Amino acid sequence: MEIIQILIIIFALFAFSRSVLRIKEKSITKYEFLFWSAIWVIVIIVASLPSITDFFTKPLGIARGIDVAIYISIILLFYLNFRLYVKTEQTNQELTKIVRELAKEKLNQSNQDIKKENKIIFPKEID
Amino acid sequence: METWIVIPAFNEEKGIQKVINELKESGYNNIIVVDDGSKDKTFEKSQETGVIVLKHLINRGQGAALKTGIECALENNTEVIITFDSDGQHQVEDIGNLILPIKERDMEVVLGSRFLNKKSNVPFIRKLFLKCGAGIFRIMYNVKLTDSHNGLRALSRKAAETINISQDKMEHASEIIEEIGKHKLRYCEVPVTIKYSEETLRKGQKTSNAFYIFFKMVINKFSR
């Protein structure tokens, strides 16, 4: 086994342990945990047995097995990047909404304070 | 017509009072300033003038500030909303011409164009990008304009209620055009003068930002 294979396996195990921690903290869902676990297990299998990718070469028309892994990784990275982009946009819009509501609330509050300050107090009626 | 002026402002403590006072001297007393998380005294300086001032706790961008101001104006009995820059680039005298088509020709959106007269000292590169922008608007949104990304505009109440500004940063200017095309709002352009100074060019939108705005326009077109 080459050093690069060992490094990839160690990294994948580390990343898998992070996924386990996140599911314990309940900061990711069960399905997200399964998705990431599957990714890291595939990485470990491909790193330990690179020849396994040769199985896909003929049907996909790609010369080397390892190229299949690289192409799939790139596609996956693009997809995850897109999902992150959408999520960031959503978070940004939600943040703006909160900032906007706080600005309006503060304005309403200061308007109410002004009204209270200007309230005319009439002297008590004489019986 | 009840007119409200919405001014988004970010770090404009030096010039904001001058802009507000000029507007008030010309009889525009319904003014909303949205301080978009300035680090300087823009909020305090604006408040001293006695106009309505909203404060974003953190900087969210010009589009976000405009939307906050427009929503606030709609809560009042506004018939026309003018969007006006805080850096002194826009001229108060142009506001009357922006309101007129809404009042007399039943227009819903009136956009200022710096290319319908020759009074604006637009740098050549900026002119090139703005003209390209106008061409792209025509292709993508079927809205025919001579200028793009001009912040001086008038919206009727109906247009302000219809146009949804979801883009927080400078892309909102393209989004407004997209919304005009999408909702088939009646629009026209009127000549306005933009006065560029070293200060406004330094603080204002970077010409190179045009590529990012175009990227966002394409993304938005396909993700909706």
Q: What report would you give on this structure?
A:
Helices cover 80% and strands 0% of the residues of chain A. Chain A is an all-alpha fold and 127 residues long. The radius of gyration of chain A is 29 Å and the shape is elongated. By secondary structure, chain B is α/β, with parallel strands linked by helices. Chain B has helices at residues 16-25, 42-48, 62-75, 94-104, 124-141, 157-162, 172-182, 198-203, 209-223; strands at residues 3-9, 31-36, 52-56, 80-83, 109-113, 153-156, 187-191. Classes of the chains: A mainly alpha (127), B alpha/beta (224). Chain A binds chain B through residues 85-86, 92-93, 95-96, 99-100, 102-104, 106-107, and chain B through 34, 37, 52-58, 60-61, 64, 67-68, 71-72, 166, 168, 219, 223.
Q: Strand share of the residues of chain A? A: under 5%
Strand count, sense and closure of the main sheet of chain A?
none
Q: Biggest interface pair, residues each?
A: A-B, 13 and 20 residues
Order of helices and strands of chain A: HHHH
Rg calculated over all Cα atoms of chain A: 29 Å
The beta-strand count of chain B equals 7
How many helices of chain A? The count is: 4
CA radius of gyration of chain B: 16 Å
> How much β-strand is present in the residues of chain B?
15-25%
Low-pLDDT sequence parts of chain A: none
Structural class of chain A: mainly alpha
Compute the number of strand runs of chain A. 0
Distance between the termini of chain A: 104 Å
Residue runs with pLDDT of under 50 for 5 or more positions of chain B: none
**Percent helix range of chain A:** over 70%
Could you outline the blueprint of secondary structure elements for this entry?
The complex is a heterodimer of chains A (127) and B (224).
Chain A: H1 3-24, H2 30-48, H3 54-60, H4 65-117
Chain B: E1 3-9, H1 16-25, E2 31-36, H2 42-48, E3 52-56, H3 62-75, E4 80-83, H4 94-104, E5 109-113, H5 124-141, E6 153-156, H6 157-162, H7 172-182, E7 187-191, H8 198-203, H9 209-223
Parallel strand pairs in B: 1-2, 1-4, 2-3, 5-7
Antiparallel strand pairs in B: 4-6, 5-6
